[in-house]
Structure formats: structure tokens, C-alpha cells
Amino acid sequence: MQPAALPMDDRIPVHVLTGFLGSGKTTFLRHLLGDPGFSDTAVVINEFGEVGLDHLLVREVSEDAVLLSSGCLCCAVRDDLISTLSDLAAMMRHGQVPPFRRVVIETTGLADPAPIMQAVMSDLQLRRSYRAGTVVTTVDGVSGTSSIAGFAEAAQQVALADCIVVTKSDLVEPWRLDALGLEIGKINPAVRRLVSGKAGMPETGDIFEQAAGLQPRHAVVFGVRAVRHSAGIETFTVDVPEEVEWPVFIDWLELLLSGRGLSILRVKGLLPVAGDARPVVIHGVQHVVYPPEYLPAWPDGVRRGWLVFIARDLTATAIENSLREILALPD
């Protein structure tokens, strides 16, 4: 699996909108669906009834898909996600639905986003039309701290997020928002955070486009070591200071995820690869590795690699020892 240049990928990104029960995810989804700038989007949801789409409905385009007044295509999951996404792509190719350039999947409040990402990453048929996009997680500004502490599902939704939207900010004291921010940072220190409330909602395009990929902002994770929170999920960074031989590294990573995929919720980072001046973006979820890609240049010109792990029952020391042995890195 050789890295691919980023500009060559014109497949449709599949984004995930998730969030724990009562976190304001449905309100945010309605905000998305009513935004004219979101018109070239297919939204996949579990049930139309929970979202309240009657005032947005234009016409039914198939048994399970409707066209909204904003131009969004809204589709319900009928059998499974893979068949739903495949059907959407086929309908677009045959001119049965308007063209769309992004898909947003809205999960239930207790859902784990990882299997959705895995489906897009691992299914060969889907990968012809789609690529994995970003995970946006809504977190309740009022009850988010207790939800993260008490429910593994809420903590995992935060752990896998590329962007966090803290909701109901107008209903809680600033110090509680600060405390929630600390809890989020323990789980996912590099995540981008936005705040919403009755006074205003974040710009939708800004969320999905700027949260995508590995931006230079991720440099802040340097030096983060073994941060564990109440759900037993640990976040740590492993430095990769030397160039790696690509075939050796990818064999190691695939073997690691194959053997410990249930423990590794997510791994992402940048790598210096022998024979190329560009950094390689690494991204994996549980048992599956994304197709690796190049960035045009190193952030801030610093040619030093790193891998961020979000894992359960797996230590930074174990990863460092394994990587050191395989790649002959110094102690």
C-alpha cells in the first residue's frame, strides 16, 4: 500500500455526525439541513421522524430518500450502511438524484462511530466512490462531563472526533464549560473545538472542511504522554524522529492493528519516509488502516514524525518498544 498524493483523490467524503443522548445532535442536524450552502449533501439518518423534516420536504425520490427544500438529499438506513451508500452512489450515477459532493451520516446517541468509519475504509465497492471524511461529535455543555465519566459510548465518541461541538453553552456557567474542556482534552488533546448555543450555531462548511485531515494544529500533541480518563481510554504520542522504510513500517502497523485492533480506537500521525521529502499521513481505526497519503510539505518545516494513539488497555511503552524493535529506533 503506497501513499497517494492528496490532490488526486476526488472521491466523495463520508462524514460522521455523532453525539451522546440529549447532546443536541438532532438540533444541529436540522441546522445543517436548513443551510442552503449545504445543498450538495446527502444526509443518511436512522429515522426521519426524530429529525422533523416535514417543513423541509420537497419530494420523495425513492422508497428511502427524499429531496429537501435546501437541495439536500436525505436518506434512511434500510438494510445496512454499505448497501445504503452504494445505492446512493448508483442513483447519482444514473441521474435519479441530484449530484452530491459529501455525505453526512447521523448516528444514534449510543452509537460507536468506529464501525461506520471502518465500513467506508474497508469495503472495496464503497472505496471506489467514497473516502472516509471527518467525525464531528456534539457534547452537551450541561451534562457532558457526567456523560463522559459515566458512559463509555460518550467517551468513545469524543475520542474518535476530529471536531467537537459543545452545545447548550448559554445554559451553563463558564467554569463548567472550562471543566468540560479539560475532560475533552484528556481524551482527545488535539481535537478542534467549537461552541454553540441559542445565540448562534457554527458554520457548517467550516466544521467539515477544516476538520478534515491532519492540519498543522496537530503539532500541539507533541509531548502528550499517557493521559487516561474514567472510561479507561488512554491517549499518548509516540515520536518517530528518524526516517522509516515504508514497507517495513506499514507491515508493522497492519500487524499491530490486526492483533490489537479492539484496543486501538484510533491512530493518526505524520511520518518521515526514506526517499521522499513529503510527510506521509497515517490514519487507522481499530483493525483498519486508511490508504496513506502525502501532505505537500512538513508543517513549519520540521521533519520529525509522530503517532497519536487513542487506545484502551494498551500503553505507550508497549507501542514504543514494538516500534523500536521493528524500525531499529534508538532507546
From TrEMBL:
Q: Which keywords describe this protein according to UniProt?
A: Chaperone, Hydrolase, Nucleotide-binding
Provide the catalytic activity annotation. GTP + H2O = GDP + phosphate + H(+)
Q: Which CDD domains match?
A: CobW-like
Gene3D superfamilies listed in its UniProt record = CobW-like, C-terminal domain (3.30.1220.10), P-loop containing nucleotide triphosphate hydrolases (3.40.50.300)
The residue stretches assigned to a coiled coil in this entry are: none
Pfam families, per database record = cobW (PF02492), CobW_C (PF07683)
Ranges for domain CobW C-terminal = 233-327
Q: Does the keyword Transferase apply?
A: no
Protein family per UniProt:
Belongs to the SIMIBI class G3E GTPase family. ZNG1 subfamily.
What this chain does, per the entry, is described as: Zinc chaperone that directly transfers zinc cofactor to target proteins, thereby activating them. Zinc is transferred from the CXCC motif in the GTPase domain to the zinc binding site in target proteins in a process requiring GTP hydrolysis.
**Protein's UniProt name:** G3E family GTPase
